[in-house]
Structures are given as C-alpha cells and as structure tokens.
Amino acid sequence: xxxxxxxxxxxxxxxxxxxxxxxxxxxxxxxxxxxxxxxxxxxxxxxxxxxxxxxxxxxxxxxxxxxxxxxxxxxxxxxxxxxxxxxxxxxxxxxxxxxxxxxxxxxxxxxxxxxxxxxxxxxxxxxxxxxxxxxxxxxxxxxxxxxxxxxxxxxxxxxxxxxxxxxxxxxxxxxxxxxxxxxxxxxxxxxxxxxxxxxxxxxxxxxxxxxxxxxxxxxxxxxxxxxxxxxxxxxxxxxxxxxxxxxxxxxxxxxxxxxxxxxxxxxxxxxxxxxxxxxxxxxxxxxxxxxxxxxxxxxxxxxxxxxxxxxxxxxxxxxxxxxxxxxxxxxxxxxxxxxxxxxxxxxxxxxxxxxxxxxxxxxxxxxxxxxxxxxxxxxxxxxxxxxxxxxxxxxxxxxxxxxxxxxxxxxxxxxxxxxxxxxxxxxxxxx
Length: 431
Ligand code: ATP
Ligand code: MG
What we know:
Layout: H1 11-26, E1 32-34, H2 36-42, E2 51-54, H3 58-64, E3 67-72, E4 77-82, E5 85-91, E6 93-96, E7 106-109, H4 113-118, E8 128-129, E9 136-137, H5 142-147, E10 150-151, H6 157-163, H7 166-178, E11 181-182, H8 184-192, H9 202-213, H10 218-227, H11 231-234, H12 242-257, H13 267-275, H14 286-294, H15 299-321, H16 323-326, H17 329-336, H18 341-355, H19 360-371, H20 374-377, H21 385-390, H22 397-411, H23 418-430
Parallel strand pairs: 2-5, 10-11
Antiparallel strand pairs: 1-2, 1-8, 3-4, 4-5, 6-7, 8-9
Helix pairs in contact: 7-9, 7-10, 10-12, 12-18, 13-14, 13-15, 15-18, 17-22
Bound molecules: adenosine-5'-triphosphate and magnesium ion (MG).
C-alpha cells in the first residue's frame, strides 16, 4: 500500500486534473480528485479515469467550464473536457432517503468534504487528493483499511446496502479486484440485506456484472457473489444451487488459465460460461440464457453469447451421440467453420477442465480444424440459384433446400465438380 501521490498519475491525467483544480481555484473553490482514482493510486495501479469533486454547484460549473454533458443535474454530476480527458466533476452533496432503492429522494448540495465522504460506498472510495498540493484527505480511514486489506462500508453497512442494493455487487467486484477481505460487520450486513438487490434495475446489475467479468479474476468475483448468496437475487430466475453455481467459477478459472492464444477471453465468452448449459448434466440452455436476456444486454452481445452456446451444444451432441468419427464430413465442417468456433471450443475445453473430463475429443476437432484449408471449409458453390433456374428448376423455396443439400454433398466429397452437380440436379428434377 502506498500513500497516494498526484505524481504517480499519468502526465495527461495530472495535467487535466490540475487544469480543473486551477480553474476552480480562480473562483475560490478547491477541487479534489476523489473515489476510484485515489484508491487506485493507493494500491499502486494507474487509474483509468478521474473523478473530481468540489463545492461548486452545477450552475457555477456550467458558467465556468465548457461542459460536455450533464449526467444528472439534480445529482450534481457534470462531465467536462479537460485536455484529452473527460472528467466527471461532482458537487459535494448529502443524500437522503432511497425509497426506490435507486436514486436518493433528496440531494442537498453541501460545502463540506466530510458530508460528501459519508454518502460514498466504501472507505477506500472516500479518499480525496488535491492535485495542486498533493494533500490527502481521508476522513473515513480508507488508507488504513486498505493497509489492513479490508473493504468496509462508510457508515452503518446495513443502512448503506438497504439504501442502494447495487453496493452489494460493488462490494464483490471491488473485493475481488483488489484482493480485499470484507470487513466482518460489512459482511454480516451484506448477508442480511441481500434482498436489497431485488430493487436494483437490470441495467445497473448488468453493468456491474460485466465489470466483474472484465476483470482478470472474473472467477474470484463470481465466487464472492456465490459466497454472499447474491447470484439468485441479482439474476432473477437463477436456479443453479450453490454447487451448480460453483462449477461456473471453475469454468471461468479454466478459461482464464487456458492461455489459448487464438481466443480472446472476453466478456461475451465469460457470459457464455455463466449463462450457458451445464455440460456436466444436461445440454438444455434456453432457461439459463433467458436469465441473461432479462438483464437486457445489447442485441450484439446476446446474439454472440447465444451463438457460442449453440455451437458448444451442437459440438457436444456431435461428440456424445455420433462420436465425431462417424459424423459426416459436412457436419463437422459446418461446425468448425462457425465464426465463434474458437470461443465455443475454448469453453468446451474449460468445462472439461472444470469437471475433470478428458479434452481428447475437443483436441481432435481442433486438430481437424487446423488441417482444413479455407477452400475446404468454404468451397466455391458448385451451382448457384441462377444456375439451377437455368437448368429448369422451378422458382421457389425448393431451390434454397437444394443449395444446402448440394453443399452437404460437396462437403462430403460426394459431388465434386459442376458437371457432377448438374447430374445431381437433373436427378432431383426427375424425382
Ligand atoms: P471504477 O474503477 O470501477 O470506476 P469507482 O470506484 O471509480 O471504480 P465509479 O462508479 O466510477 O466507481 O464511482 C466513483 C465513486 O463514486 C466511487 O469511488 C464512490 O465513491 C462513489 N460511488 C459510486 N457508486 C456508488 C454507490 N452506488 N453508492 C455510493 N457511492 C458510490
Ligand atoms: Mg471510476
């Protein structure tokens, strides 16, 4: 642990923070770097973005700065452009009442740092650093907690979780991210107030979950969600018991350790590990995937996760029921040429690792994939629709079916050139 110093910031970030603080200073207001950035400096990491806070009201900020956008005027958060950076500048405030568990009923702009610190979630997120003087203000003892390896709520933890259930997920994410232990009172309160998560919107849950899955130790974060008994509350419809859920963390762990250079172990793949089928029991996946759909991810994400899962399940079926040796060449090629095949195989192998079964079948398919040339995977069609029409085939849906059938025959090396394809077609026409 280190005492955070502004000099550890990138020169870009430091210049940006200083320019904001200087401008505020010209109006007699002191500006502070706050929250994640100060915490990251304390643990020796480079902050990915800079949040600042001051007593200046949104009106004043708008008058003094070129404001990119108002995130929430009522909540006193404004984004301003400083050099190459966007800085979120918030107004010191107090918050009261969270009847909808999402937004405070009342926000009062205050002038004191102490007040502002009390509405923040964890002590390590309530540290303030002056970018001009390098002075640290740490009213909740965040640095001391970090030194002791503890993640602790600011104030009464039970009340803080009841105010905003999202803090439960932030707790798991931050504990996993920094290898912190949850301080006992905070832990007790989290366990007793897990239901607070029920009131949190799908959108915010998804954002936190994605944040967890984007971490190198995604498995650790999900493991903490399980320890804290939060998964079924965060994800309506989640029906895997503790054991079934734990296997998922093992799959995530295997994925992270796979070292597969061809596969980008990204959030979509990790979502597929979490919301895909349980390969140790049943290949059903519709129910699990529908839980992800309820979180309203982007269409692109949902489609990609679904594709990965479908290819995984098709491959499993091929391996289980027909043994890949007896599956047709066309069947195998259609799988192996899927754009998400690399991800599906990485996930399939991760499952093998997690449940202790052999990856030999998957290895064979990967081998096979590397032996196929692009032309073998995607051969030029022997006949296209227009060729079939010219040969007297009636227009209609049959044409599409025949094209697929002919491709199967081609991939199975049963029909190898256009001449043979015409023969194949005239047989169809005579049937
Ligand atoms: P990250 O590095 O993931 O951005 P962060 O702690 O900076 O972590 P932000 O969402 O950027 O997270 O929030 C900035 C700061 O705002 C936090 O450090 C914390 O002080 C405060 N904060 C954010 N969310 C909450 C919340 N739900 N309740 C109370 N304070 C919060
Ligand atoms: Mg942040």
